[in-house]
Amino acid sequence: MLVVATCLVIVMVPVFGSVVLFAARAPSDRIVGNSLSGAGLALVALGVFAVLALLAGAIGMIVARRQAAQLTAPLTALAGQAERLGAGQESTTPLATGIREIDKISEVLAASSMDMSRALSAERDFAADASHQLRTPLAALLLRLEEIGATDDPVVVREEAETAIAQVERLAGVVDDLMGRAKRRPAETSAVSLDSVIAALQREWQPALSGARRSMRVHGERGLQVLIPRPALSQILSTLIENSLAHGRGTVSVHARRSGPTVVVEVSDDGAGVAPEIAAHIFERSVSSSGTGLGLALARDLAENNYGRLELLRADTALFGLFLSEASSSSLAKTNLR
């Protein structure tokens, strides 16, 4: 049954996010046709809504995947950085992903790798230094014990035993110095008689020099006092004597002199000197014509750690100079106030 009446056709038009309703009066004789047209429009609207829903879902999936990829790549890189750190890699570079939290974690990992690298490097240096510093006094002590075992003269035995005791004391000082370095304790600076240290080293190295048919000449000013721990001074000069014995020729010369407030100890020999290609790098680790190359580097570090310096004054017929502060009442007072 057709209803002869007028009706309102409602059209919804979105304007800036709101819906505006327009009403129009339809003629009564077009009710059936308009009813059919309304059903078709509803189907079209449902189809449009379905297409829009599918399109929105597809766009959402694309955006989600892109966001997941943007987050997954930095996390993968961060995991790789952590794996390298766990595998023992000494240094890693911080990531720059643009994600603040991930970049912060990466910076912490990079800082930890730097700390680990420094700690491992210090441990390796300490092991190498300890090996080298203990090897020289132990070799000299062995020579003394061999001298004692090869003689029946009580006087010689007594002299060699006294020298061996002095060497053991120096060895104990070297161990104390190494332990202090391991614990990062500052060295205890005190006034040391340069004459007594050189005389002890002359006795200590006499068997090795005699075996090589060489000798040591000590000259210069006497009665000098220097500010440095005795074990450190003995180790530095012993390294210079050992270097001369290994690479030089003729007489080993040890000369002491004043230069203003500084005491200079010069060690030289009659050899060909230091090769030009290594002269500029002679105090670097692993730079040596033979051997480990640690000796002069250690000697330089010991000098610098005790407010002195060790230099190669002349490459031709090698001349090394050890510069130390002379001990005086004023310098001792300043040292005690530290």
CATH architecture of the domain at 186-337: 2-Layer Sandwich
SS field, number of helical segments: 8
The CATH homologous superfamily of the domain at 186-337: Histidine kinase-like ATPase, C-terminal domain
Tell me the distance between the termini: 116 Å
**Low-confidence parts lasting 5 or more residues at pLDDT below 50?**
1-32, 289-293, 329-338
Shape descriptor reads: rod-shaped
Subcellular location: Cell membrane
Organism: Nostocoides vanveenii
Domain Histidine kinase: 129-328
Keywords: Cell membrane, Kinase, Membrane, Phosphoprotein, Transferase, Transmembrane, Transmembrane helix, Two-component regulatory system, Virulence
Short descriptors:
two-stranded antiparallel ribbon; histidine kinase; HisK_dim/P_dom; Heat Shock Protein 90; 9 strands; disordered C terminus; 58% helix; 338 residues; disordered N terminus; alpha+beta
Could you outline the blueprint of secondary structure elements for this entry?
Layout lengths: L6 E9 L2 E9 L4 H56 L13 H50 L4 H29 L8 E3 H18 L4 E5 L4 E3 L2 H18 L4 E8 L2 E7 L7 H4 L15 H11 L3 E6 L4 E7 L3 H9 L1
Parallel strand pairs: 4-6
Antiparallel strand pairs: 1-2, 3-5, 6-7, 7-9, 8-9
Helix pairs in contact: 1-2, 2-3, 2-4, 3-5, 4-5, 5-7
